[in-house]
Design goal:
alpha/beta, seven-stranded parallel sheet, Rossmann fold, about 30% helix, about 220 residues
Length: about 220
């Protein structure tokens, strides 16, 4: 007598797998963060929560900052996070556990050469409203990292980052938005939510927990 599974196979039905197939979460290879008004403070909250261990991915940041404050913001982030912060002035390879910012009045762009990821500050494109542009960072990072990219949109005015977030989603990456109630100005994350590019918004501490989870590191966030 044929078993039920054998009979279904002979009848053309697909056999029931012996073990259920589990979807595994892709471990991210880079974090790209965009922000405007209130962004440095929100980013500090995330970085403080991550303190105490090395990240195995680079952190790429575009914050709408006047050129004259670029170095002071970098120094503050380095002091508060305990991590190396690099203001990019020339093409260089990206390294894990390093935070990258563009030099004053420039965009931060990611590119790939011979299989390695590089970052550079650039003036083009010039026909965008903001410099640095979150869209430029997100779009270039999505091209390089694809589904291994985690995009984060923090507090800020306007919709910079919306088109770039669409590029991240199209490449299979994941996107997180800051909880609107924790923002100084909520326009940027609200645009991401309204577009359906993420299904929830989180306060900075919970975004930090997601970073640890998706980089394969232990979360100490309560």
């Amino acid at each position: 007598m044929l078993s039920q599974a054998q009979a279904e196979t002979d009848a053309g039905a697909a056999p029931t797998p012996a073990h259920p197939v589990r979807k595994t979460r892709i471990q991210i290879g880079a974090i790209a963060i965009g922000a405007s008004t209130g962004g440095p403070q929100a980013l500090v909250q995330i970085l403080r929560t991550l303190a105490g261990g090395k990240l195995n991915v680079p952190v790429l940041v575009a914050i709408h900052t006047p050129a004259e404050f670029c170095q002071s913001v970098a120094a503050m982030l380095e002091r508060e996070s305990g991590r190396e912060v690099v203001v990019v002035k020339a093409l260089q390879t990206v390294r894990p556990d390093v935070i990258y910012l563009p030099s004053g009045n420039m965009h931060l762009r990611v590119m790939k050469r011979l299989g390695a990821a590089y970052v550079d500050s650039c003036a083009a494109p010039g026909n965008v409203r903001y410099r640095p542009s979150v869209d430029v960072l997100f779009d270039s990072a999505a091209y390089v990292y694809g589904p291994r990219l985690m995009g984060i949109v923090l507090t800020g005015m306007g919709e910079d980052g919306l088109q770039g977030a669409r590029a991240i989603a199209a490449a299979g990456g994941c996107i997180f938005a800051q909880a609107l109630t924790t923002c100084v100005v909520d326009s940027m994350p609200a645009a991401i939510l309204a577009a359906g590019l993420t299904h929830k918004s989180d306060p900075p501490e919970e975004i930090a927990a997601q970073i640890l989870l998706r980089t394969g590191q232990q979360s100490h966030v309560k």
